[in-house]
Amino acid sequence: MERHRWLTVAIFACLIVFSVGRELRLNHKHSDDAISFNHTLAEILVEYASAAYISDLTELFTWTCTRCDDLTQGFEVIELIVDVQHCLQGYVGVAKSLNALIIAFRGTQENSIQNWIEDLYWKQLDLMYPGMPDSMVHHGFYYAYHNTTIRPAILTAVDRAREFYGNLDIIVTGHSMGGAMAAFCGLDLAVNYNSQNVQVMTFGQPRIGNAVFASYYSKIVPNTFRVTNGNDVVPHLPPFYSYFPKKTYHHFPREVWLYNVGFGSFVYQVEKVCDDSGEDPSCSRSVSGKSISDHLVYYDVELSSPGWRSCRFVMDPPLAASYGTSDPNGNQVFSRDPGISLIRLKEQLVLDGKGSGAI
User: Fold this and answer.
1) Confidence class for position 22, pLDDT limits 50, 70, 90
2) 44 CB contacts (<8 Å, ≥6 apart)?
3) CB 222 within 8 A of CB 253
4) Measured by CB atoms within 10 angstroms of the end CB, which terminus of the chain is less buried, N or C?
5) Could you tell me which residue ranges the Fungal lipase-type domain spans (predicted)?
6) At residue 17, does pLDDT exceed 50?
7) Residue 69 per-residue DSSP state
8) Distance between CA 103 and CA 187 in Å, rounded?
9) What is the DSSP secondary-structure string of 101-139?
10) Residue 90 in contact with residue 154, Cβ under 8 Å?
11) Sequential DSSP letters for 183-252
């Protein structure tokens, strides 16, 4: 029995040695194009994606929420966008530790995720992407970024940040539907704003276009990773049909699949960097992909709202009055000049006395 136990430990140790590779090297066809997947960056960005679900806008805007610490301490939000009309939320800010501008999008609210997933099974490619012949995309995801208050507010924040901080790297992230919006945002910045330093990393992202679109995307935004987890159902949607290669949805590369290996109580999470096809059959496509629970936790970080709520938000009234603007539909944008100290802003809140108001 003792011998068997030590044999188990030895085998598990070997698995760890061969699977760790915290920073894994990609095998592109051209070595000069090689880009590394950075495990540490992934653990940081998943926290930014998680914070996008916070509905207490005071805590999010001042970066004092329970999800606004750990690996993201010191982050400064300069723009917070809440599209109440379409139940969307995102923010832009500066992570000085990364020397980068972070853009993060919230995913689908968990109280509607089951219906949203069922709806995705039937979604068709129904929109030509501008300027990319034969590229078809999912109009719902495209419109969520391009035809709401989200895009103009994001681009305004990027311009203001560049004026103050110079040419920072731009990292775009999001989970679930937020990952789809992040992909369209990264592409938009590269195509329409000639941004050369755009990175995109998404978590549990659905497919958003066909194979032609995926090919264009991978050339324009090569520094992109889609992290998938175990049997997460959403990366399997909308469905991929290999026998209709020109008509079906198709993921763009590159996927990094998280899955567990081990024996009994010895379990270890492996990061597998997949091939450059976008649809590697040995990665998440190798499993059934029917789990919602695997969709809601990545790297042990929760990716859902802290409490059940509809598309309502809370903001401290003095803060909303000082930094917020709204349109006739009730959509809100909260902007902070990068030159205004976040410490000063927090001190003002203390003087005012933090209140709350539903938006």
Assistant:
1) very low
2) 71, 72, 95, 98
3) no
4) N
5) 102-240
6) no
7) S
8) 13
9) EEEEE----GGGHHHHHHHHTT----EEPTTSTT-EE-H
10) yes
11) HHHHHHHHHHS--SSEEEEEESPPP-BBHHHHHHHHHHS-SEEEEEETTBSGGG-SPP-TT-TTTSB-PP
Rounded Cα distance between 32 and 35, Å, is: 9
Structural domains of the chain, with CATH: 36-352 (3.40.50.1820)
What pLDDT band is residue 19 in, cutting at 50, 70 and 90? very low
Cα 53 to Cα 4, 49, 128, 227, 257: the distances in Å are 46, 8, 30, 18, 23
**CA distance from start to end of the chain:** 62
- The reported pTM is 0.87
CB atoms under 10 Å from CB of 40, counted, come to 10
223 token code pair: 């520094």
Measured from the Cβ of residue 56, the count of other Cβ atoms closer than 10 Å reads 18
d(CA 174, CA 21): 24
Q: How far is CA 104 from CA 115, 120, 202, 272, 325, in A?
A: 24, 22, 10, 24, 20
pLDDT, residue 109, reads 72
Q: How far apart are CA 5 and CA 14, in angstroms?
A: 15
pLDDT given for residue 11 in this prediction: 40
Q: Are 212 and 136 in contact (CB under 8 A)?
A: yes
- The two structure tokens encoding residue 44: 């940081």
Bridge-based pairing state of the strands 100-105 and 169-175 = parallel
